[in-house]
Amino acid sequence: MTEHAQYTPGPARGAHVEKDGERWTLVLVRELHHPPEKVWRAITQPEHLREWAPFDADGNLDAAGATVKLTTVGAPTPHVTETKVTRADAPHLLEYNWGGFDMRWQLEASGDGTRLTLWTNIDRRFIAMGAAGWHVCFDVLDRMLDGRPIGRTAGPDAMKVDGWQRLHAEYAKQFGIEMR
After folding, report:
1. What is the pLDDT of residues 53-93, one digit of tens each?
2. Which structural domains are found in the chain, ordered by start?
3. Distances from the Cα of 118 to the Cαs of 16, 43, 131, in angstroms?
4. 143 and 122 in contact (C-beta within 8 Å)?
5. Residue 148 burial (CB < 10 Å; 0-12/13-18/19+)?
6. What is the pTM of this model?
């Protein structure tokens, strides 16, 4: 049995929603036991993103002005979005737009590690699902950084993980919305 098959996500945690009129922003915070420089590489370099993120990148996301194609993992048909990195302040802040949704990553030194915060605007109908999906991706990222990779688990694969429905329901309840 592989580690991937044994993986079960923990309880919903480290997420909240910010509302500005009809605009909803999902905010996820995760404490990682690695320095910001190592986490920065994991969120900006294609070879690392391929191990945990819900998209592939055809170039580095580590420079403002860089144009990169992001391809959604597990989409029924390839969904490719050209994105321009609007801000890259290594190893602290990264901003770009993915598929029409603004993404803002902040890395703060925290003890011996990094507090990683992601802000992403998202359709209200999918916010609990998005939180559960990013939760699983961040678990995979954490294990990859620890040198205990379990393999990318994003998109439809994340929904097959034992505990997905529970996690999705916990976020829906936490955000006060109905599950879809």
Report:
1. 999 999 999 999 999 999 999 877 778 999 999 999 999 99
2. 14-175 (3.30.530.20)
3. 11, 11, 11
4. no
5. exposed
6. 0.94
